[in-house]
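Postdoc handover notes: sequence design on the structure in folder B. Input tokens:
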């Protein structure tokens, strides 16, 4: 298996402690810089209001298989959570596309650390990607509950 980085992420988050719990909880503008060979892949991206951003979480603990969520003291398997610590730390955010500036996409809703490797971008399609009735007992169902959720230390 081989992954080819398509770019790099520029964000104000230099350390994990500075990043929001989830990208959707921040209004910060983030830059997705696309490497020159992949610029043609940006054709018509301005027609998308939202993008799926996949990046590499290089500071993740790849040995962690269970962790607590911010909403419970009870550990759950990382495959049933959104923990950044996982065997293959491929991170996922749905970002608002604010604008394109040549080889850079200015987005909102990404929690990546500055310098993170950008793996892929996909067009978000509400009819395919949104499941309003989906449920996960480990994660609250509203952004407000997520933003105000208790931490694992409380």
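Designed sequence:
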């Amino acid at each position: 298996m081989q992954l080819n980085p398509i770019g790099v992420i520029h964000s104000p988050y230099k350390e994990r402690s500075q990043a929001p719990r989830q990208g959707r909880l921040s209004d910060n503008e983030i830059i997705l810089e696309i490497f020159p060979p992949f610029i043609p892949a940006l054709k018509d991206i301005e027609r998308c209001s939202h993008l799926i951003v996949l990046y590499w979480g290089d500071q993740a603990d790849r040995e962690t298989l269970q962790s607590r969520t911010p909403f419970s003291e009870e550990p759950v398997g990382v495959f049933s959570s959104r923990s950044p610590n996982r065997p293959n730390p491929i991170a996922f955010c749905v970002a608002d596309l604010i604008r394109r500036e040549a080889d850079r996409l200015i987005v909102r809703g990404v929690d990546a650390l500055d310098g993170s490797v950008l793996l892929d971008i996909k067009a978000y399609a509400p009819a395919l990607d949104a499941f309003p009735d989906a449920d996960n007992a480990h994660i609250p169902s509203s952004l407000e509950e997520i933003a105000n959720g208790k931490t694992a230390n409380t």
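Context for whoever picks this up: Residues 7-126+134-148 form a domain with the Elongation Factor Tu (Ef-tu); domain 3 fold (CATH 2.40.30.70). Don't rerun without checking with the PI first.
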